[in-house]
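The records we work with from here on pair a chain with its fold. These numbers are not coordinates but entries in a learned vocabulary of local backbone shapes. To see the layout at work, look at the sequence and tokens printed below.
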Amino acid sequence: MYMLVENRTSSYLHLKRSPGIRSWSLFVGIASIGLAAAYYSADSLAWKLFYMAGCFFVAAQNLEQWEEAVFDKNKGTVCLKTFNLYKKILTFSKGGHEQVVAALNEIRDVNVEEETVRYFGKGYVVVLRFGTGFSHPLTQSAVLGCRSDVEAIAKLITSFLELDRLESQQDLSQSSETEASDADEPQDTY
């Protein structure tokens, strides 16, 4: 699952993403190696604590981030938040939260992009394109394989922001301008 819809109204859209089953499995696997090394070793207590702490930090480092995207039409902003357990532990609760805030009226397009994920193949991520030329991914990590889930979230955001209506209005205005300019040109007859 790419992102879950936490809350949706006509003026508010809240999307959430938590670490997946692969991430939690890797976390438990690495942490259990530390526990097993500490339990079965004949080393001193200090070394056993070092084994457990080291494996726990490596496991926490490999855990995916918690991510949120809040689109609020009343405030006119989109807020992209990330929470990382590893950074939170290393900074003793002072860090770990990152936040990007942008104006909703600056978003011009929502696309699905393909990324190459080392050792695993292709992953997909939703990218917000802004009128200033800036692009920002909705999440920091791509989801493997499930392009349809990512496209469904992109369509949800596009319909919420009414970008599909804006595109159709721009297409109509461009076609009418072309027809008007064609009518102004003199017609050659042979």
